[in-house]
Amino acid sequence: MSEIHEILTRFWDQLIAQPSGPLAFRLILQPMMATILAILDGLKDARAGRPLYTWTILTDPAQRASYLREGLKRVTRVIVFALVMDAIYQFLVLRWFYPGEALVTVFVLAVLPYLLIRGPVARIARLRSQRGKAYDRAN
Hints:
The protein is an all-alpha fold. The protein has one domain. It has helices at 2-15, 26-48, 53-59, 61-93, 99-138. The radius of gyration is 19 Å and the shape is elongated.
């Protein structure tokens, strides 16, 4: 039990409690890069009339794998960048590399923002497009 507590404490310290430490900019840069990719992909989804990304992953087993592969392909660079940055951070601060913590950090900073933002962006873009079409028809 104390080992789990140590892991959680170390993870908390390196992810949340060190916003001014070395490589702290990774806490902003990685989610920002994932967000930009999610916005671009959400807009493409809306233009193509594709179903909402995260909703499809959660509810459509037939398309889940292909959607996950496509999303992973889009954020691979961000994931690799996040892993490298976290490895450097861990070696500088902790003098060791903890791969499990690095993967959790990458998920929280890079993958999660992508998953949470892509679908809503597509929905908003669709709604705006539909309102624009309705406005054009009315005039």
